[in-house]
Write a structure and sequence with these properties.
Layout lengths: L8 H16 L7 H6 L7 H15 L9 H15 L3 H16 L1
Helix pairs in contact: 4-5
Length: 103
C-alpha cells in the first residue's frame, strides 16, 4: 500500500526491494515483542556489554600493554567459548597443544 502511494520511481524501487527482502527472509525475522512477552532473550545487550568491557580493558587504556587486532580477536574468541561453556570440549585442547609446542 505504501509503495503504491509513492510517485517517485527511485523511492518506489527502494520500497519494492525492502518488501522483497522482508518476504524472502520472513522465516528468519525475529518477533521481539513476542519473545519479550514470553520472557525469552530478545536482545544481545549483555553479550555486547561483555565484549565492550574486554576490548576496553586493553585497547582504550593508555598503558604500554595493548593487543593487536589479531591478538584481541583470538582472546575474544577464547572468552566467548568459555562463557558459552564450549571451552573444555572444543578450545582447551588445541590451545594447550599449541602452548606445549612453543614451550
Amino acid at each position: 500500500m505504501l509503495r503504491d502511494n509513492v510517485s517517485e520511481e527511485a523511492q518506489r524501487s527502494k520500497l519494492t526491494g525492502l518488501y522483497e527482502y522482508l518476504h524472502r527472509n520472513q522465516a528468519y525475522l525475529v518477533n521481539y515483542e513476542a519473545r519479550e512477552q514470553a520472557n525469552e532473550t530478545y536482545t544481545s545487550q549483555v553479550a555486547e556489554s561483555h565484549v565492550d568491557t574486554l576490548i576496553n580493558a586493553r585497547h582504550k587504556r593508555t598503558k604500554k600493554m595493548q593487543w593487536t587486532r589479531e591478538g584481541a580477536y583470538h582472546v575474544l574468541q577464547i572468552r566467548a567459548m568459555m562463557v558459552s561453556e564450549k571451552w573444555e570440549s572444543k578450545g582447551q585442547g588445541p590451545v594447550l597443544s599449541a602452548l606445549e609446542a612453543t614451550a
